[in-house]
Amino acid sequence: MAKKESSLDRVLGRIESLDATNLTNLAQKLARERAYLETVFNTALEGILVVDEEGEVQYANESGQRMIGLSDSEVGTTLLWRLIPGLRDSLGLEEGEPLRDSISSRELELTYPEQRFVRIYFLPFKEPVGEDDKQFVVMLSDITNEKRTKDETIESEKIASILLLAAGVAHELGNPLNSLTIHLQLMERQLAKLESGPATGKLGNSLSVCRGEVERLDGIIKNFLEAIRPQEPDFQVLDLSLVLEEVLEVVGSELNDRGITVEVEVVSEAPIVRADRNQMKQVFFNLIKNAMEAMGPGGALKIVSRSDEEKIYLRFGDSGEGIRQSDLSRVFQPYHTTKKSGSGLGLMIVQRIIRGHGGQVGIDSQEGVGTVVTLELPKRNRKLVMLEA
After folding, report:
1. Which residues form the PAS domain (predicted)?
2. What angle do CA 48, 49, 50 make, to 5 degrees?
3. Is the pTM of this model over 0.90?
């Protein structure tokens, strides 16, 4: 089938017959069209590159240059393989081997000029630009947010499955504990029928200890199940400073026994939010307990509340041993703990509750200095303020 002739082909076919004025007009028209296309390409969020079969970058729009750290002076002289390490190996190309005349797609992580994930498409030109030139369009799409959202979904599903398993185990432990309670009661009744004496007294004390330990285990399981079961927050208007006072009153004797001083400071307005009272108590209790265990006797805990137009910030700073850099990225993972008797669920539960309230949890730590945990929560009237604005 005969090739369809374009209007540009017809003009170029008569270029030898054009006079100087028409040649000038044609050159100006081509320059305007080039500038127009440059503007179109530079407004695209995706990176658009043109490379030859050796991988040398012949053209790059502004988004493409920004994604791979390519300067104007490097266009036409730099190989794509140098800018995106690992891409050539991913395509299965040996050094010096030309690009294959096929469509390819890859997802890679870039570390320069900033860390991001990109999806890369190679599309060969249907027709060569020159007689022997073979070129490819390379499309770069930033999928960093998509990747993070996917990773967060996987993490949430993994946590949910672990919590479901843990809840099942905790529930099953409750059955033998109930059986132990019943049999201990029967043993106490039988003991009461025996004549009193030194032997029955010791046996009674042992039974009392056993009952106390069974009740303690039962309480631990109940608290564990209440903490990990996903529950919709019962939102109500709360002054978090008052909720914090209640928690500090409960743990006050333990803080005093350890010689830990606590300072609470409200920098600006009262921290009033819409939140679930019991869940926020759980958050504060977990953070204070972590701080106590990190500091040991004689430490200092400072809790600071501040706010801006939209958010409330609560900072829990301790003078403990800090968190190792290698552990900092894993503190929210279930069952990750550096303590001998820790469950590894405390901070994970804190994060789940705060996220359920539309907030975020941040951690800053320095070994040998201490740790600061920042709770970020939306203010009670944030939506009203946004609507008024």
Report:
1. 33-75
2. 135
3. no
